[in-house]
Amino acid sequence: MRTQRKHAGLSDKVVGSPAYDRKELYQELCQDEDGNRYTVVVYRPFPNLNVTRYELEDGSRVEFVDDCLFEIEATGKQLTRCP
Known about the structure:
single chain; mainly beta; 6-stranded antiparallel beta barrel; elongated
């Protein structure tokens, strides 16, 4: 009896952290309208691409709005850069 080769399916894929190291560029101190402080981490997820991503220290995604404003994706809460 011949054995058959197993083909990788979706269930065989490992989900988790990527196989590359993202490069943190810098951190921004920000606050919301209530005065709560947050740290936005600015990083490059792919070392060889000019793509920049933003997230809070807890991993929550943040969108860059303009030079003074970020928005937390999950809540829509806006954050301004601290002076």
